[in-house]
């Protein structure tokens, strides 16, 4: 999906469902049988995934910032982010600012 093309709702939902399922399987694993080099490689892979996830988050936040009204959000964007992401308003504001700085689009 890195082509930047528009996808339909079903595709987006299916991809997020697959991501959730993969994360569920991953956190259920027991890594005890692996070696130190294997743990280190997997730790690096965890970091790679961690750094890629905000790209989608930035796109979602920037779409909300550009297109959603305060009425649709139930107030300020940062408050809606805090409510839906189950995080503090301070963290939500940080994410919104990061999305504006690093993501596609402007607030």
Automatic annotation (TrEMBL):
Residues 43-103 form the DUF222 domain. It holds the Pfam family DUF222. It comes from the Bacteria. This is DUF222 domain-containing protein. It comes from Mycobacterium kansasii. The lineage of its organism: Bacteria, Bacillati, Actinomycetota, Actinomycetes, Mycobacteriales.
